[in-house]
Design brief:
177 residues; mainly beta; two-stranded antiparallel ribbon; rod-shaped
């Protein structure tokens, strides 16, 4: 039953076990038992409550920073939603947006301010959980990238000594840039 009031028989289910199909809406089940020459007896219904899908929300945009700088805090541009109590866990990956994500310790708020001093391009996402009746459903947000622009100054070739008023030769770089 979709409402606990209107019931439909499930044909081909004449045992005491029944494995329901995947459900997308709350559904009620009961057993109708009948012995030869007796009236039907109906069990109390059981309810299979289906949580609405967890919507992970959208987190702020990609960033490019210089090596060692402080990325801006990540915020929601579209809030997360779910039918239960929402929780969050931020994750990062040094690989790419498709894998290798690890939880970031205590980063469990709706927003996250990554630490300063980032020296490697890092990928971030937020896992949103929705808990109803101790059942936890999860969904991952979009992935954002903090690209680290690793500029090295290089080395200028050769110290020089010139006469006062003299014109030094052009400087050239020997490594880096």
């Amino acid at each position: 039953s979709p409402d606990g009031l209107t019931w439909t028989a499930i044909f081909g289910t004449d045992t005491l076990q029944y494995l329901p199909p995947a459900l997308t809406a709350t559904t009620y089940y009961r057993i109708l038992a009948r012995a030869p020459s007796c009236s039907a007896v109906i069990s109390d219904p059981v309810t299979i409550t289906v949580q609405a899908a967890v919507i992970p929300g959208v987190i702020s945009e990609h960033q490019t920073i210089c090596s060692g700088w402080d990325p801006d805090a990540f915020t929601e541009t579209t809030p997360a939603s779910g039918t239960g109590t929402l929780g969050y866990q931020w994750q990062s990956s040094l690989t790419d947006c498709s894998g290798g994500f690890l939880d970031i310790g205590t980063a469990t708020g709706a927003t996250y301010d990554p630490p300063s001093g980032l020296t490697q391009t890092t990928y971030y996402r937020r896992i949103t959980t929705s808990t109803v009746n101790s059942v936890i459903c999860t969904a991952a947000s979009n992935c954002l990238t903090v690209t680290v622009n690793d500029v090295t100054p290089g080395v200028i070739a050769d110290n020089r000594t010139i006469c006062s008023g003299g014109d030094p030769d052009a400087f050239t770089g020997t490594t880096g840039f």
